[in-house]
Design brief:
Length: 491
C-alpha cells in the first residue's frame, strides 16, 4: 500500500477498487476501502508529501511562507519607494507589514488543507459540497490576520475572480455561451458610468485623480484653462513627473548630504523640462494659427491638438509602463543575456497597452469636444456618452480581470453613494464576508475544476503553495464527473 499511495494513481480500475461512492444529503462522497486506514484518503488525494494531515499542513505552511515572503517583500518595497516613504518606514513598518501579509497568505494555505482533512473526517470521505462549506471558515480565519487597509482590495479582486470562475464553470457545463468581446462591452458600460460620475465629481480622490490623469482635468465641469506652469504637468508630464518625483524622493531619502552641483539627476530633469518648453512654444505658435476651439472647451489648445496630444502622451505612458513591468520581472535574465532587452521592448503587449490608453483618451476627448460643439454646452451626460465610446478601446488590450474589477468597484461606489444619501445600509464587516465567500469558492473550484480558473491565478496558486496545489491527485477526484484531471493532462 505504501508503494501505491506514494505516487499519483491514474488507473481508473485501481481507483474504483480503493474508493467507493456513497450517497449523502450533500451529494456523493468518495470513501476509502474499509480495509485501509481512513486517513489514507487524504494522503492519496490531497497531500502526497506526507501521510499525517497536521504535519502535511505545516509543511505546506512553511513552503508557502517562503514563497509568499518573496512576493510581498518585492511588492511592498517597490510600493514604498514609489510612495516616497522615509527611512523610518523602511526600518520599522515595512518589515512588519511584509511579515503580516506573508503569514496571512501562508495561513490561508494551511487552513485550507486542515479544513479539507477535517471535512473528510466529519463526512467519512471526500465530499464535493462538504469541502465547499469547509473552505469558508478557512478563509475567514486567514483574512482576520491581514491588515484592515488591504481587506477591501483583496475582497474586490477575489470577487471579480469568483465571478469569472463561475462564468467559466457555466460555459464548460454548456448552460450558457461565451460572448465574443464580452469583456470589452462590460468595460464600455462601466466606463460610461465612470465618465458620468467623474463629471458629477462623485468619485473619491484616488479614482478621480486616476481618471483626471487619463482624460485630463479640462473635462471637468468647472475647470479653467491651465497656465504655463501647470500646463507642463498637465500635458507633458505624465512620465516626466513620475520620473522627477521618483528621483526627488530618492534624493530626499538617501542623497541629502550632496550639494546641488553634484546631483547628477538635476541636469537630466532640467534637460527634460527644456525639451517640454520647446514643445510648448511650438504648440503655442501652432495654436495661434489654427483656432478651432469651442468657448465651452476648457482645454488650453484647440480641439485637434488637444485630442492628438492626449493620444501621444497616453500611448507613450502605456508603452513605457508595460515595458517597465517586463524589465523589472526579467532583471535576472537581462543580467545574463542583455540582448533580451530589445526583445522585451518590442513585445506586442507594450504596444497594445499603449494603444488602449492612447485611444481611450483620444476617443473620450474627441467625443466630448464634438458634443460641446453640437450642443453648445458642457453637460454631465457628455461623460456618459464619451465614456461608453472610449471604453471600446479595450479591443487593443482585452482583459476580463480589468473589466470585472472596475465593474465591482463601480458597484461599491454606487452602494457607498446610497449609504451617504441614507438610502442603503452600511455593512461594516462586508469586506470580510465578501473575501470569505469569494476566496472559498475560488479555492474550492481550484481543487476540483482548476481548468476553469484564470490561468494567471492558477500559476499564482502554484507559486505560493510551493507547487503543492499541483500535487493533488485529481485523477481520484474525476469520480465526481467534473474532469478534474484536465489540468494534469493539459499541462
Amino acid at each position: 500500500m505504501d508503494r501505491i499511495t506514494g505516487q499519483k494513481i491514474q488507473n481508473l480500475d485501481l481507483i474504483r477498487q480503493l474508493f467507493t461512492t456513497k450517497r449523502h444529503i450533500l451529494g456523493p462522497i468518495l470513501c476509502i476501502n474499509n480495509q485501509i486506514n481512513p486517513s489514507t484518503a487524504c494522503h492519496m488525494a490531497a497531500h502526497h508529501w506526507g501521510k499525517e494531515c497536521l504535519r502535511s499542513a505545516f509543511v505546506l505552511f512553511i513552503g508557502s511562507f517562503k514563497k509568499s515572503f518573496r512576493v510581498y517583500a518585492s511588492l511592498y518595497l517597490v510600493s514604498a519607494i514609489l510612495r516616497g516613504k522615509n527611512v523610518t518606514y523602511f526600518l520599522t513598518k515595512l518589515p512588519v507589514e511584509t511579515v503580516r501579509s506573508t503569514v496571512f497568505l501562508a495561513a490561508n494555505c494551511f487552513y485550507f488543507m486542515m479544513f479539507f482533512c477535517l471535512s473528510r473526517k466529519i463526512f467519512g470521505g471526500i465530499s464535493y459540497w462538504g469541502n465547499l462549506l469547509f473552505t469558508f471558515p478557512a478563509c475567514l480565519a486567514s483574512i482576520l490576520i491581514e491588515r484592515k487597509q488591504r481587506r477591501g482590495l483583496l475582497a474586490l479582486y477575489l470577487t471579480n475572480l469568483a465571478a469569472e470562475t463561475g462564468f467559466n464553470m457555466l460555459v464548460s457545463r454548456g448552460h450558457i455561451r461565451s460572448i465574443p468581446n464580452g469583456q470589452v462591452l462590460l468595460f464600455a458600460i462601466s466606463s460610461a458610468l465612470y465618465g458620468l460620475l467623474f463629471k458629477m465629481k462623485s468619485l473619491d480622490g484616488g479614482l478621480s485623480n486616476l481618471i483626471r490623469l487619463l482624460v485630463g482635468s479640462a473635462e471637468l465641469m468647472e475647470s479653467k484653462k491651465p497656465d504655463r506652469k501647470s500646463r507642463v504637468v498637465t500635458y507633458y508630464g505624465v512620465m516626466t513627473v513620475i520620473l522627477n518625483n521618483l528621483i526627488t524622493r530618492l534624493d530626499q531619502m538617501f542623497l541629502q548630504h550632496h550639494s546641488r552641483r553634484n546631483r547628477w539627476h538635476n541636469r537630466l530633469v532640467d534637460s527634460i523640462r527644456n525639451f517640454e518648453h520647446r514643445i510648448e512654444r511650438f504648440l503655442d505658435s501652432f495654436n495661434r494659427a489654427n483656432r478651432y476651439s469651442h468657448p465651452k472647451c476648457h482645454h488650453r489648445y484647440n480641439c485637434l491638438i488637444y485630442t492628438i496630444l492626449g493620444f501621444i502622451q497616453r500611448f507613450l505612458a502605456g508603452f513605457g509602463l508595460q515595458a517597465a513591468i517586463k524589465l523589472v520581472g526579467s532583471i535576472g535574465t537581462l543580467i545574463k543575456k542583455p540582448r533580451v532587452l530589445i526583445k522585451l521592448l518590442k513585445d506586442k503587449d507594450n504596444i497594445q497597452l499603449g494603444m488602449f490608453l492612447g485611444c481611450f483618451t483620444f476617443v473620450f476627448r474627441a467625443v466630448s469636444c464634438a458634443l460641446r460643439w453640437l450642443t453648445n454646452s458642457h453637460d454631465k451626460l457628455h461623460g456618459l456618452i464619451a465614456g461608453f465610446f472610449a471604453g471600446w478601446s479595450m479591443v487593443f488590450y482585452k482583459s476580463s480581470s480589468i473589466a470585472l474589477y472596475l465593474n465591482f468597484k463601480l458597484l461599491e461606489i454606487l452602494w457607498m453613494i446610497g449609504v451617504k444619501n441614507k438610502k442603503l445600509p452600511l455593512v461594516k464587516p462586508f469586506d470580510i464576508i465578501l473575501y470569505t465567500i469569494s476566496t472559498g469558492f475560488v479555492l474550492w473550484v481550484a481543487l476540483y475544476e482548476p481548468h476553469n480558473i484564470r490561468r494567471a491565478y492558477w500559476k499564482f496558486l502554484l507559486k505560493i503553495s510551493d507547487n503543492r496545489f499541483s500535487q493533488v491527485n485529481r485523477f481520484i477526484l474525476d469520480e465526481f464527473g467534473l474532469k478534474s484531471s484536465t489540468i494534469d493532462r493539459k499541462f
